[in-house]
Amino acid sequence: MDMKKFILLIAVITMLSSCGSKDRGELVGVQGKKWHPEKPYGMQLIPGGAFIMGKADDDLAGVHDAPAKTVTVRAFYMDETEITNSEYRQFVHWVRDSIVRMKLAILADEVGKIPDDGGIGEYAFKDADTANMSVYEKYMFENYTGLGPTGYEGRKINHDVDLVFDTAEYPDEYYTEVMDTMYLPLEESYNGQRTWDVKKFKFQYNYMDIREAARNRGIKRKDAIVKEEIEIYPDTTVWIRDFAYSYNEPMHNDYFWHDAYSAYPVVGVTWKQAKAFCEWRTINKNSYQKSKKGSSPVNRFRLPNEAEWEYAARGGLQAATYPWGGPYTKSDRGCFMANFKPVRGDYAADQALYTVEAKSYDPNDYNLYNMAGNVSEWVNASYDPSSYAYTSTINPSVNDSENKRKIVRGGSWKDVAYFLQVSSRDYEYADSARSYIGFRTVQDYMGTQVTKNSNKK
């Protein structure tokens, strides 16, 4: 083909492609799906804006770790209540059931059982029958399955068949063998009741350390990915260990698992477990999104940073002492506004002895409950008494991985009123669990148009 014919051919192709295009040759950008923000279940939208963070009046405790400064935070969603026992149990059951299903699938694979065989075969890996795989699934199975220490990484476990927990209905001896490994040994049981070996309830997840990747431009992507494995069952012994010479055995025995306490805030959870819960909540929601054709994945759930927590706790009130304003802890009718330790240790004066249901007392102006009292809340920040002096004034965040002292905010059922103040800071170690510390989660809002103190009319 000579040069003239080649140029003519290119011109014809270009003209035909332009004629078939809807952009008429203009720079219109790539048109994606129309975005409709969806408020996450059980959360409230906190509009972005500026506020005075820190102590607005005298620091009576003399800590001097929260000098007043004006900061601005972006919009985000926040749980309207602390994470409850019922909600955390959903996480525990998901992890437990996933581990059981994986063990069943592995044993079925080892003994050569498939779904048609019944029994444990019904719980075989979904790829045991490759006939119904899509082209993509077949490619991934043949090229990437089993690339890990166990040889089972990447294989899909079967969630379509219900697990059987009644020993009288176990389908075969293989199923019995697997379930037996998930309980404490018989010699550790009493009253004729075997209990789960909760040490085996471990959640594994990966995340990218974006801050480290940004600081170290020469780092390889795989080296910025952090792998975590966390035991996720709450430490129920906190009800005993936190209080010497005190009878709290009923709380130890019943508080987390009994339905009477389902709507109460979960406690006995470490900072690391709270972060693991956030990762699971993201995975769980996005698994559902993936099953809905055309649905986009959601932003990750996470713990709030310190500025976000205080901004949300204030409920739009500037320079207030408490979420309801203040400076008093009683209403004009003489009722306490939160669950804490009033009147020199009369725990029952506020109508509560320990925790109360997560949706108790009046919410603040952002419709958030118990931002003061009930349980203190983990936030995604490390405690440094001088951090307010050097943090940014926009979305300030200090979380040093080397600093194991993590911020808790809001005060709890066993704290005096000082710790209920929205500006008061406290900390606990990241691997510690307490009977008075829980958490709530947040999710970033997509966009910037939602601001509380903007000039828009």
Automatic annotation (TrEMBL):
Stretches assigned to coiled coil: none
Signal sequence extent: none
Source domain of life: Bacteria
Domain Sulfatase-modifying factor enzyme-like: 43-442
UniProtKB keywords: Lipoprotein
Pfam families (UniProt xref): FGE-sulfatase
NCBIfam families reported for this sequence: GldK
Name of the protein described by the UniProt record: Gliding motility lipoprotein GldK
Source species of the chain: Flavivirga aquimarina
